[in-house]
């Protein structure tokens, strides 16, 4: 109830502090959500949030409104919220559309500014919002001011010597603002036109005046229509007409006509046609006859008599040259290159500027050079023994009159040498199939003849293949000799290595008869080796031999049959070995080690290379060695050599499961045989000796009667008193002194039974006394200290160890809160009995046992020296004796 009240109060406080969304969240708490007061808080908070969202929308804070609507939908969904969400979404879409329109307008505004369309840019921004319009207008005004400034500067610089720079300034002004004020534009253009007219008049000659005029009007095309530019163009046209009328050469006239055409001067139609004809005759090279004829007619029509006469003279020369060219080209088609070249050279001597004929002469020279190179290549091919190449090259050159005879000589000599090589090759083929090649020396002689023939013709098609086959046969014969020698030495491995190479070489030989005989001999040796391998159980060797024999099937078919028989026998043996191995594992599982060893030996006889059998055999060998070691341990234990037996056990590696029980039992037997199960001496360097008593009851009495667990040479009864240990539900472990046959006093008071407390002083009889202590609360092992000089086993300190469990551990370390204090120790060491009664040591830092390192905890035996955390100690067997 109180919790509900607290949560309602928190929601109400949030509403009062105008934290409306927090108030909604608090009022939605499941503990108070159904409360009438929580409903009222939610209604007020929701209305307030809706009103705030509408205010934010009206104020243009769209992002905050969107965030609050999303939160409100989570806390208080409803129809009003959905309507509000739709309104926010609509406003967001409108905002995006407005932003897109503004961005488009800005991009178009920048384009218009870059194009100089300032009036269009000003019209464009008339529809944008006031703020954007006021931000963009200064840029328009700035550009207009800059354009007017450049235009006025161009007008002030309109001087003949600076007119080009002034025109460039006006062009820049026009590019910035294409709507310059008309009065300013007209005034500046007029000044520039007058300056251009004076600048053109100042040029030293007509071609430079034309070029200067063209340069100025190209910079500012509007200049052509401004006075006095039209008059200047007309005057320049008149000067060109006069200059062409008195022209002294067609080439010079063509250059002037081209300059006039580029300046776009006003000519009448006949003059324009004449100028075009002059330009056509001024192209690179000698003008064509048709162009010269057209120029002659056009020049005569406009009164350029001198130029018409020049065109007529060149037309007559061109007709004579055309006849020479026609004859030269006919010679060229017939292949008479040298005669054609002479006519081309004569023509160029008279008409050195004819580019077309010069190119044709270059082609003729290139053809002659190609013929010379072809003849040289044919000679070189003949000298280097490439007879086929020499023949081909010479046949291509026989039709050329200049070098036909020499090409025919090369062709005849190449054909003669080729015939000689073909004849020699036929003789070698015959020799290879005759008696002469019955021995390796004969084959080698044939190879030497082939090598000599190859020197005569290096591009023979058949010769390299025959030579390679003979070389392969020589290599195969040499390999056969090595394999035969290895066979005589009984080196069958060398034979197995040689066979694949020999079989692979057979297709490369001209004839395999000489090799097949040796291959049959080698195959018979492989058969003998494979039979021995199968008998000895080397199945992988049998598999290799079978593969060799299968390769020899083309030589002799029975080899493949023997290979199949081997493979079947090998598969049967593998199946038999698998069965024997399964039986051996079953015998081992039944702890019949001898029978498992017998089965493994039988399996190895059938398949010596089996990895599974060998691995299992090694496992059995380890088991046999460990079993023998355990027998030795048993023998040592019977001979009372417990230390040697313990060392044997400790030196054994990881024991397999079938021997672990036996090892465990032996360790227990050794522990009992060494006397650690009842009591033992704990000897600690710098910590003294303590007699440790294990068990739930300890009898104290006179040493002479030999009936006490703790015999003391004192005036006591034989079974004077006992200390009995018990576990109480409320009090935990308790040690009680119980009077048996003697007098017991605790704190001076006689008692028959007393539960001992740490610090109790106990007296037995008239002389013996001891002090009972619990050295540490971390262990249930207690201690008694004999007084008045009495000792047992050479010590007056007896530890009553709580047996079986780590809660009875003996603590050795540097502090007082231990059973044995060692000042130089660097940590604590624990000694305790496991649940099976085995004594163990534990140390977080680790240590050594007889020099062998251990980590954590480890079993210990009597006589072993333990060093850990700066503490060195050992356990010694002890039994009460007279």
Task: Walk me through what this model shows.
The chain has 882 residues and is of the alpha+beta class. Among the domains are: 2-97, no CATH class; 228-330, no CATH class; 674-877, Tumour Suppressor Smad4. The chain is 62% helix and 13% strand. The protein contains 29 helices and 20 strands. The strands form 2 sheets. The chain has a 15-stranded mixed sheet that branches. Helix 3 packs antiparallel against helix 4 (62-75).
Can you give me a brief rundown of this structure?
62% of the residues lie in helices and 13% in strands. By secondary structure, the protein is an alpha+beta fold.
Q: Report the sheet with the most strands, covering strand number, pairing sense and barrel closure.
A: 15 strands, mixed
CATH architecture of the domain at 674-877: Sandwich
Structural class: alpha+beta
- Apparent shape: flat
The Cα radius of gyration reads: 63 Å
Total strands: 20
Q: According to CATH, what is the topology of the domain at 674-877?
A: Tumour Suppressor Smad4
Mean pLDDT: 81
Terminus-to-terminus distance: 82 Å
CATH class of the domain at 674-877: Mainly Beta
Into which percent range does the helicity of residues fall? Answer: 55-70%
What is the count of helical runs?
29
Enumerate the spans where pLDDT stays under 50 for 5 or more consecutive residues: none
Q: Beta-sheet strand percentage? A: 5-15%
